Amino acid sequence: MNVHSSEYIEIELAAREPKPFFPHYPSEYEAEIKEFTSTTGEPWKWWGHTHTPPPKHGTPPKYVGRFYLPKKQVEAKVWVPCPCCWPNHRKFGRKGGLIAWFPDEKVIRLIGPECYAALNQEGHDVAIADLKRREKEKSELDYILRCLGRLPEWLAAINQMVLIAYQADQFFPMISSRIHDSLRIKLWRHIRNGTLSVTEEIAGIRVGRDGEPEEYTERLSTPLFQLEGAKALNPERKLITPTLEEMRIALKKLSHFTEETVRTRPAQERLAISKELRRILRCVQTMQERLRDEMRLLGQVNINRLRQWATDPRGPVDFEIERKDGELSMRGRKEYNGIPIPEELRTNYLPTVDLPLE
Ligand SMILES: [Zn+2]
């Protein structure tokens, strides 16, 4: 052992004294230890820590939790000694350490994250798997509690969203049907990728096979505009309202849980609840994105672009469409003048259900 190493550190005798004060799994000390280490950066000075190497053949520890050093200390790379392997040298701390409880000796050691594995790999693997399971359960519980706090707000947003979706489900298929069936314009195939293109014919002269100059024309597809919300006019557009309604009911079912009842459920059941929450929220968000996109179709600038493209002689379709204030008009083989756009679709206001951080 190099006493003169810059990493050498003198450890107080008190730290080495065995402290068999913990006959039971000491979960109640986890918060205190975390607080102590993350403020002092000196885990070996915690009053309950035993700074001796664990016996090689004893019962493997249980990992109560993880502890961390102060951020500034990690940045300065000032590490801490480990009772298992380097009791007098600053050796670990970059990724924090483990609060290890040794039931045979009834002691707690604050050790490096991989240290006990060197003594007993299998014992370490079992203990770390158990810790990870508990950490996962904890994070699922936290997730559920975060969600529960926001359920009333989300339900209100979905209620409003349903009103808008209902109008969209009526309005867009009606417009699409009038364009495709009544005006007999094959619009969808030309707008489905969100680009409004026209075909340009370019004439030129080139040298032919016989060596003589010859004229030729080339047809080039040229994008004119981007069209937002084109999917609203898909003839096979799926309804949004029934899915939103279903999600509203599913979410409402979860709203009878309180923090108290969730905490007392078995872990397995909590996992099912958090999965269900994720499923509902993802689904609502998908519907919300669809609706937001479709509502953009009716924007004045967007409709103006569609109008200009639809009457362009170089374009693949020929009909008129225009928006004036709250009304849409379309003209071709037939005329539809002044179709009222539902109030809910005249603006781009959409309530949002934002996912909480995982
Ligand atoms: Zn160690």
Could you describe the 3D structure shown?
The chain has helices at 13-16, 30-40, 71-75, 115-119, 121-182, 188-191, 241-254, 259-264, 267-296, 300-310; strands spanning 62-67, 97-102, 107-111, 195-207, 213-226, 320-324, 327-331, 335-340. With 358 residues, the protein is an alpha+beta fold. It has 2 domains: 13-119, no CATH class; 135-195 and 230-345, no CATH class. The strands form 3 sheets. A 3-stranded antiparallel beta sheet has the order 1-2-3. Helix 5 runs antiparallel to helix 7, helix 5 (121-182) runs parallel beside helix 9 (267-296) and helix 7 runs antiparallel to helix 9 (267-296). The radius of gyration is 34 Å and the shape is elongated. The structure holds zinc ion. Residues 82, 84-86, 111-112, 115 line the site of zinc ion.
What layout of secondary structure does this protein have?
Layout: H1 13-16, H2 30-40, E1 62-67, H3 71-75, E2 97-102, E3 107-111, H4 115-119, H5 121-182, H6 188-191, E4 195-207, E5 213-226, H7 241-254, H8 259-264, H9 267-296, H10 300-310, E6 320-324, E7 327-331, E8 335-340
Antiparallel strand pairs: 1-2, 2-3, 4-5, 6-7, 7-8
Bound molecules: zinc ion.
Zinc ion (ZN) is lined by residues 82, 84-86, 111-112, 115.
